[in-house]
Amino acid sequence: MSTVTIQRTEDPGRTLGVVGLVLAIVFPIAGLVVSLVARNRSREAGFANGLAKAGVIVSIVIIAASLLISFAIIALGVAITGDPTLMAP
Prior knowledge:
Structural class: mainly alpha
Shape: rod-shaped
Strand content: under 5%
Oligomer: single chain
Order of helices and strands: HHH
Number of helices: 3
Number of strands: 0
Helix content: over 70%
Largest sheet: none
Distance between the termini: 80 Å
Number of domains: 1
């Protein structure tokens, strides 16, 4: 009796890569985490996961843009009112 070995040629992080990319647009922090997990799983299996890499990049860009816009809005509020304690009760 001979044994047959079946090798799995499917990327184990592909589905997570797609989920990570979608989450990167909707919930960037969750998208970053899922995309990094997908990228690591693919790399361990010897695959290059472009979707996971795109999810990481999109997440980082959206997070950075959100932070910049938030700081700009706060700076604009301080510049207009001249009061740095806008949020104080």
